[in-house]
Design goal:
Mean pLDDT: 97
Structural class: alpha/beta
Low-confidence stretches: none
CATH architecture of the largest domain: 3-Layer(aba) Sandwich
Order of helices and strands: HHEHEHEHEHEEHEHHHEHEEH
CATH superfamily of the largest domain: Type I PLP-dependent aspartate aminotransferase-like (Major domain)
Bound molecules: pyridoxal-5'-phosphate
Distance between the termini: 48 Å
Number of domains: 2
Radius of gyration: 20 Å
Strand order of the largest sheet: 1-7-6-5-4-2-3
Number of strands: 10
Shape: globular
CATH class of the largest domain: Alpha Beta
Amino acid sequence: MKRETAVPANHQYPSYQGLLPFREAAAKWYRRRFGVSLDPSSEVIALIGSKEGIAHFPLAFVNPGDTVLVPDPGYPVYHIATMFAGGKSHLLPLRRENGFLPDLDAIPRSVLAKAKILFLNYPNNPTSAVADKTFYRKVLGVAEEHDLIVAHDVAYTEIYFDGKRPGSILELPGAKKRCIEFHSLSKTYNMTGWRVGFAVGNAELVAGLGKVKTNVDSGVFQAVQAAGIEALTNGDEASEGIRRVYRERRDLLIPGLRAIGLDPVFPQATFYVWIPVPKGYTSASFCAHLLEKTGIVTTPGSGFGKSGEGYIRIALTQEKVRIREALSRIRKVGF
Ligand SMILES: *Cc1c(COP(=O)(O)O)cnc(C)c1O
């Protein structure tokens, strides 16, 4: 990045779809990681972080009044972006008894008939759930039957534990007909502030997103793209180190929470811990209790949608010494 900032050519407007070498690096990474082949010139587009791509995507495909299927709890951008496009969100509750996967059979047929896009996000923020091929096969079946676009947010595929590598829906035969995946360098390589990600999949979906983007932004600073190429090409080891740090924190926090009487979902991926609140509390009142009595900041599950009520989320983004301190404060104060 430092070297590339000194190159005058990098200070021009970048190409809106991303430098071809960046798109090639993303395609090669997908091939290495998932065994999925992508055409860098038509099936990959650079993003100013994946949030940007997710937020602009509905503008390309949702007409006013159209329905979009949105997981609840979920990353708030799916619903907000749907609203910006004039669409209506139909919420899909994610419940613990279903492994935090939406029950696709429970969606009314009248809703499916009007639905344009199905948003998914596995590994999942905030529940930390992962999806397997059986679920993705089911998704493709439903999408095929009701002519849905599947927009899969895969920001956390590289934050996994215990050697269980989450897959891409594009690994399934035929998935490229109707799927797009949003990937981010933010979590994988600790590059949140750099603003770089990419979307891959069906060429028409990628082109539609590109068409919106040419009209609202002008691409990613090329020095950042150069750093992105380096990360995607030679960053596997760095990514492994990041996973190790989160795993150590997880393996400290989970037994600690259990020891004080909480029942967290055991995360197989992501850096989130999703915890049902103790009896007598709501999401908000338990967060307030922790904040006021122990000085610990957590996120109320209700902030991710109404099905998030009854949970709080803790992020494994503090060092072990702070996690130990947090556990000891909660133990002292109780709930
Ligand atoms: C962090 C996050 C993103 C966006 O990350 P960017 O920094 O915009 O690439 C997207 N989806 C989910 C679920 C996230 O948690």
